[in-house]
Amino acid sequence: MNPRILTVGYALMDILYRVPLLPEPGNTVTVEDGKPVSLPDGAGLITAIALSKLGATSLLSCRLGQDVDGQRLYTALSDAGVDTSAVIADPRTQTGIRLYLTDGQTLPRTVYYPGANLNLTRDNLETAFSTRPEALCLHLDANEEILLDAAARAAEKHLPIFLNLSEVREIFPYAKLPKLDILCMCDREIEALTGIRPNGSDAGLKALLALSKSISSRYYVINMGERGAFLFDGRHFSMASPFSVKPVDIAAAREAFFAALSLEYLRTRGNITAASKYATLVCALTTSRPGTVSSLPSADEIGRYGAK
After folding, report:
1. What pLDDT score does 306 carry?
2. Which of 61, 118, 183, 232 could pair with 86 in a Cys bridge, judged by C-beta atoms 3.0 to 4.6 Å apart?
3. Rg over CA atoms, the chain
4. Beta strand pairing call for 37-41 and 12-18
5. Measured between alpha carbons, how far is 1 from 299 in angstroms, rounded to an integer?
6. How do residues 231-286 score in pLDDT, each as one tens digit?
7. DSSP assigned state of 34
8. Are the C-beta atoms of 52 and 60 separated by less than 8 Å?
9. Dist CA 123 CA 128 (whole Å)
10. Is the pTM of the predicted complex or chain greater than 0.90?
């Protein structure tokens, strides 16, 4: 079963500059042999590519600028087998970028420009849904109006809806969302929304009970990284054990987990336990190598690893 899954979300280019030290305000640091590293990114783009590599028929609805970065992102999507019929080239606005300045020791300084991502329209969604998707993946970093409109369209068509709380937004009209199939999040996000840190079974259950009062979902899943995943169906909870790997880079980990969780849930006809176990494996393998798109495993790789 290869379900047809539509992702609505951002696509952007990360530009990483490594410097010997971060400049103080008003100062300049000269880099003699430094070269910026560019990596495809954005929650929507990474999710769509992860879904395609894992075997789904994957579609992405987003906007890119008609520039070099936009062409590179479009090529990355096409090369990964993502259906790009709902990817719009915006002639007026540049492709979104995120600039990182890091010395490799402290937290990076970041500048974020959403660019063409902010221009996605309802007409663009109409085009995306005309491709007859069987499920919808959303990220909370998308434009509020577009996110709610996409969710409403999916609910009207009785499609499964998966939402990833990919950023902390305390002010959001969560009550306007239709009932979800899966709400996926990390421990940091649920703590920000509920004030409860899920650092154990009791605390995790308490946090999810609190969250379920404001966001309606059939299942709630906390991706806890190297500690596995915490699952909740509104009454009962369970844990998915982690897979042990040596972590190298977590850049695409959240999106890989979310994509794998959504896809396996559809393939197993709603088996959230199997879906969570599969997602923790995909997430672990993703963190075991560097990069964003380049770190995402294929279905064949997952099959070989799971057979060991």
Report:
1. 63
2. 61
3. 19
4. antiparallel
5. 13
6. 999 888 899 998 888 999 999 999 999 999 999 999 999 999 999 999 999 999 99
7. -
8. no
9. 9
10. yes
